[in-house]
Amino acid sequence: MTSPGVQDASDALKRVFGYDSFRPGQQEIVEHVVAGGDALVLMPTGGGKSLCYQIPALVRPGVGVVISPLIALMQDQVDALRALGVRASFLNSTQTFDERRDVERAFLAGELDLLYLAPERLQLESTGRLFDQAKIALFAIDEAHCVSQWGHDFRKDYLLLSTLHERWPEVPRVALTATATEATHTEITERLGLAEARHFVASFDRPNIQYRIVPKNSPQRQLLDLLRTEHQGDAGIVYCLSRNSVERTAEFLVANGVPALPYHAGLDSRTRAENQSRFLREDGLVVVATIAFGMGIDKPDVRLVAHLDLPKSIEGYYQETGRAGRDGLPSTAWMAYGLADVVQQRKMIDSSDGDFAFRRQQSIHLDAMLALCETVTCRRSQLLAYFGQRDTPPCGNCDTCLAPPESWDGTIAAQKFLSAVFRLKNERNQKFGAGQIIDVLLGKDTEKVRQHRHDQLTVFGIGTELGEAEWRGVVRQLLAQGLLGVEGEYGTLVLTEASGEVLGRRREVLMRREPARAAKPAKAAKGARSAAVVELPEEARPLFEALRAWRSATAKEQGVPPYVVFHDSTLREIAARRPAALADLAGISGIGENKLNKYGEGVLAVVAGEG
Ligand code: ADP
Ligand code: ZN
User: Which of 532, 314, 502 is nearest to 414 (CA)?
Assistant: First the structure.
């Protein structure tokens, strides 16, 4: 393969990648790095970070070295680049000695544009010698937040990255991440020595993602409904916290006709790799996974990311939801969240082995997550504020914007509940969970109530103005606001210092009332059709489907994921425009020179066949 031999950045953008224009922020970053400057790039998932080092690597003399923790994805990343005509390879521990030797030879011979490297290879002096002998265009440090202990993906090997600048000071470095809280930003800057670098902070908004958080009652059913009504045939990722619930949810989906695969650390590595690879290669699969799945998965057409359990931090949640809709098409981030989540997570933090600072950090993360769940204002505004972008107007594309929940004065309800917690605790110092306390407030005649003589208490039956579900909402919000605590292995409820302020009438409590009907997306009428075809005119749909079928076959033949051939967005544009000649095809976004040569005739034949 010969080098694409680009003249400058805009030439690379058009001829190699087939894109008409840079996305916001990209051009400045590219120009800065091409000129040899160091950069720290904070950009949301799907924002287009890769181009920010790939183009400078093509324009500058020498090889661009990309440090990435995503070993399992290197093959796919390299395949995608090669499909564009870029000479890319990788070095990591999955290769045989001979394979690595071949790559090193190509590297030294100047036959590579980009080399992906696992961070642990920096420990080896042989890597240092290799770098000494070749011209290096730049170091790109992908997933740079892995250097941060405050964040959620710390990798010890990332600490080695500080040596890059010491040993090769003349090589520009560009560090990139989608995690951008102030704490992480500061830590990356310090640990990678990027104080002098230019910092590019993009907007973290992902406008095509619709955020929705619903009360959890039967999560698997709720998920199935969502898949059937809005995401039939779409690729999706469903996150659960435990392996067990991953397995059960995947089985449930399969039993109900949704093609789904499990992914968690308890599966052997072959099954994991196979399931990940099927997800990337087949259309319309749902992967049910623990959080271990998905970093760096650049499958652009994931239409749904669902959380069946509360994530542990907003950083994690935002990265996971960011895996939806990288292609810019409408996508959904949906979460079911309930009282048990709060209790369980508080309990986990309480009983963790970590030291005080660690537990405190976890609980700050959890509080921010709970505040998002219980907000009565725009979810997106709140998320963006968390990443430092304050005062953005309501987005119009999240559940609270689409169906605003009311807030209500829950002070009296809070007082009733807290006094019940207090009374039940006094009773022989036994402590009870939320269920029993709610039964008492509702005046229920259960065996447990009689056994503990809770029907004798003054709080018995004083809460009948609310239903059971509403009481659970009250408890959730008290926990979220720190007005109630959780203790011990059974997760019993206890009063906190702040509870006293409510009981002593020194503090009012505002609560969120769930809207009667859950928010439906603006285009609810689309029915059971795949979201990817929604905005196509009716008459273009058969062609779009035909192109997808052609893409599947082509991808299979070449052993690459379908999106490496073309993205959905490119196929949609072809279907809408019906190009008749190669020259017409060349103008479509996502079709660079290499792909035009390779696939142009094939695509035109499909278009002609559907005419
Ligand atoms: P990130 O690494 O920030 O998550 P990627 O680099 O994977 O994002 O880019 C996300 C998607 O956007 C990819 O599918 C990529 O091909 C596409 N993309 C990036 N830059 C552009 C551009 N200038 N024009 C059109 N599409 C782009
Ligand atoms: Zn909103």
Answer: 502
Indicate if ligand 1 lies below 6 Å from the C-beta of 112. no
Least distant ligand from the CA of 210: 2
Domain 4-201 carries which CATH code?
A: 3.40.50.300
pTM attached to this predicted model: 0.82
The CATH class of the 209-337+375-403 domain is: alpha beta
Of the listed ranges 67-76, 195-204, 269-278, 367-376, the least confidently predicted one is: 67-76
> How far apart, in Å, are the Cα atoms of 496 and each of 250, 493, 530?
39, 10, 48
Closest residue (by CA) to atom 2 of ligand 1?
49
DSSP for 236-290 reads EEEE-SSHHHHHHHHHHHHHTT--EEEE-TTS-HHHHHHHHHHHHHSTT-EEEE-
d(CA 297, CA 318): 14
The reply to whether domains 408-513 and 538-609 share a CATH topology is no
Is the separation of the CB atoms in 568 and 301 below 8 Å? yes
Q: Is the CB of 76 under 6 A from ligand 1?
A: no
Q: Which of 312, 299, 272 is nearest to 288 (CA)?
A: 272
Task: Give dist(CA 474, CA 489) in Å, integer.
Answer: 22
Dig out the tokens for 467 from the structure. 């239903």
Read off the pLDDT of residues 467-493 as tens digits, 9 standing for 90 and up: 988 898 899 889 888 888 887 767 778
Instruction: Kindly report the CATH number that applies to the domain delimited by 538-609.
Output: 1.10.150.80
Q: What is the pLDDT of residue 525?
A: 38
The architecture that CATH gives domain 408-513 is Orthogonal Bundle (1.10)
Q: If you take atom 20 of ligand 1, which residue's CA is the nearest one?
A: 48
> 45 CB less than 6 Å from ligand 1?
yes
What are the domain boundaries of the chain? 4-201, 209-337+375-403, 408-513, 538-609
Tokens of 435: 């269920």
> Which ligand is nearest to the Cα of residue 207, counting in written order?
2
Dihedral sign for Cα 395, 399, 402, 407, please: negative
Angle of helix 356-373 versus helix 379-386 axis, rounded to 10: 150
